[in-house]
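pasting input
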Amino acid sequence: MLIKISEEVKKALAEHKPVVALESTIISHGMPYPTNVETALKVEQTIRENGAVPATIGIIEGVPVVGMSEEEINQFASRKDIEKVSRRDLPLVIANKKWGATTVAVTMIIAAMAGIKIFVTGGIGGVHRGVNETMDISADLIELATTPVMVICAGVKAILDLPRTLEYLETMGVTVVGYQSDNLGDFYTRDSHLKVDGRVDTPEAAAKLIKAKEDYSLRGGILVSNPIPEKESLDEKMINKAIEEALKDAEKEHIKGKKVTPYLLSKVTELTKGDSLKANIALILNNAALGAKIAKEYYLLHD
Ligand code: PSU
Ligand code: MN
């Protein structure tokens, strides 16, 4: 068995019903227990309430799973032996029959294998600050250029270098659009003041972008930035101060490679006494509702 697709997701795909993919790195490495499992289940519920079937993706004993059960999500939230898996880690986790939490990059790969077109997350990886020294650029960006999945996020988190992330996406030919916004979201706040390539004001307009790419067999995905709701967004000064401090701590502690993003996320949560975590939950639920609506429109376009 190459990939294991749950009965519910298999049925939805066969009947051309809307399906939304979800990642597992945010569960295993992006949020603390038990907030991670509570959030993952709420995200699934929000997708259902908005008329689509959720498909949480992860790797269990070397087998990619599409549409995890509640019990499996619980395991991803609590086990300590779950590796963070990006594209380069994939053969190792599969061959060695390990458990793997899928990043945006690998969730896109597996979603595409299963025939899922739309994927909801909180934030994507990007070009890290200090890239001139470290060359740290997330494999998520290369995946967006390669794999035909639309990714809905709340913009790019300020732990990263936002202008360089947008430059890189441009170079790689990735379309970036703002949902009801001309600018890229700043994750914890609504506006990075950086322009994106286009704006979509309805789920239908977003769905039409996928169709346009498909009609002309254009490679790669599309990034939708859905700004955090106004009432949930954090104070800009407060969050930026926490991010600066987290970045300094990471340098002091010589955090490198795939550990960087999880380290910064947990440090920022600690420094904001949980405020950043609350905002993270709010924005992912907001993204889940939008992703489900886009999935519905996408399937209507194909009926
Ligand atoms: N950004 C967030 N929360 C996350 C991640 C990014 O705000 O949980 C996770 C995603 O799974 C993303 C990964 O794909 O971190 C990027 O890791 P890296 O920078 O090592 O590529
Ligand atoms: Mn990296």
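fyi Residues 275-301 form the longest helix (27 residues).
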